[in-house]
Amino acid sequence: MKDNIVIIGGGIAGMEAAHQLLLLGYKPILVEKSDHLGGHVADWHKLFPDMSPAKDAVRDLEEKIKEANIFLETEVSFINRLKNGYNVMFTNGVNVICKAILLATGFNLFEASRKEEYGYGIYNQVMTNSDLERWFNTGDDKRINGKEIKKVGFVHCVGSRDVKAGNPQCSKVCCITAIKQAMEVKEFFPDAEVYCFYMDLRLFGKKYEDFYIKAQMESGVHFIRGRVSEVSENIEGKVIVKTEDTLSGKPAKVTLDLLVLMSGIVCNKQAVDTASLVQVKTDSDGFLKSKDNILNIIETDSKGVFLAGTATGPKTVPETVAEARAAALAIHNYLVTLK
After folding, report:
1. How far apart are CA 297 and CA 300, in angstroms?
2. Which of the 8 DSSP states describes residue 175?
3. What is the pLDDT of residues 50-99, one digit of tens each?
4. What's the DSSP call for residue 249?
5. Strands (E), the chain
6. Of the four, 19, 23, 110, 277, which is 20 to 30 A from 225 by CA?
7. 3-state DSSP call for residue 108?
8. Which residues are paired to 102 by β-bridges?
9. Within 10 Å of residue 222's Cβ, how many Cβ atoms?
10. pLDDT score recorded for residue 339
11. Global pTM?
């Protein structure tokens, strides 16, 4: 019987790693703190650039890991280093001896309320990207239901590339997510005018530029380059956005029925605590520290401890899946050397 492998985090990275380890003949033990698998992707509506349903991706992975040991609503309470492995204790009372650990602990979204100038939690018609995805999935949000939605705005880089907010890093997927959501809004409200307020558009992935052009040419989304300087509310409850169109060099003022803040990706702080149990530190960007950022991003300086997905920084779903597969193979190769 092959050795136990504990995977901490049941998002896309943890699920794909579990799938690959099953194919390699292992019996992975997957630990997830929430009541469902899939992480943030499970809460999303569609995935860019193909606009395929997020639930299909999660369901596909769930089918592939039925043979794994999965603990939901469970966390790691303590990890004890052994001579050639680890003793991992879970909050449900289960105690596991394993030879390797994979930290697939994911990310958190920046708390938009910290950027008070954008009015989240202050003005009724301001929501986040996560709130909007929830509405796409459930159709339930008082900021949209029963309202006349004729103008919608998206503010990019909320809590990203922002030294004052403590996160100077680019969140990598916010631009493309804003474009995806803008196009979805147009599907729900075909006559609405939709605006994206951005600093720079960073579209690096396969078919992302095509996606951007489609948003303009087919969906009619307006893109205004310039950081939003002020958000306020008028007597009718509409949101007023002030910015400067840096391409034209003129100030811009737009009155909206709904404003969506693109909250950036930040490190999962709870993951930092868990990682500290196996002496894995955080890097200068606040995410978990790899052995290096070139050839060994899925490895750590702690023997038998590996990383995958957004635990080390912002990533797309394809990148996350690729890292999970690489991590599974790296764990297998590591265990082979112990024989």
Report:
1. 8
2. H
3. 999 999 999 999 999 999 999 999 999 999 999 889 999 999 999 999 99
4. T
5. 4-8, 27-31, 46-47, 52-53, 69-71, 76-82, 85-90, 95-98, 100-103, 107-109, 126-128, 151-158, 193-198, 222-225, 230-233, 239-245, 250-256, 258-263, 265-267, 305-307
6. 110
7. strand
8. 7, 306
9. 15
10. 74
11. 0.95
Residue 315 per-residue DSSP state: -
pLDDT digits (tens, 9 = 90+) for 319-329: 999 999 999 99
Q: Which two tokens stand for residue 74?
A: 């469970």
CA–CA separation, 252 and 153 (whole Å) = 13
**Tens digit of pLDDT for each residue in 289-321?**
999 999 999 999 999 999 999 999 999 999 999
Shortest CA distance to 8 belongs to which of 106, 99, 140, 153? 106
Judge contact between 313 and 288, C-beta under 8 A.
no
Helix (H, G, I), strand (E, B) or coil at 12: helix
In the block, residue with structure tokens 């951005």: 198
Closest residue by Cα to residue 290 from 303, 307, 276, 314: 307
Residue written as token pair 């631009």: 175
Q: Rounded to an integer, what distance in angstroms lies between the CA atom of residue 58 and that of residue 60?
A: 5
Question: All domains of the chain, ordered by start, with CATH?
Answer: 4-106+268-338 (3.50.50.60), 112-265 (3.50.50.60)
Q: Give the amino acid at 115.
A: K
Beta-sheet strands, E only, within 141-248: 151-158, 193-198, 222-225, 230-233, 239-245
> Shortest CA distance to 113 belongs to which of 133, 130, 135, 134?
130
Q: What mean pLDDT do residues 103-124 have?
A: 96
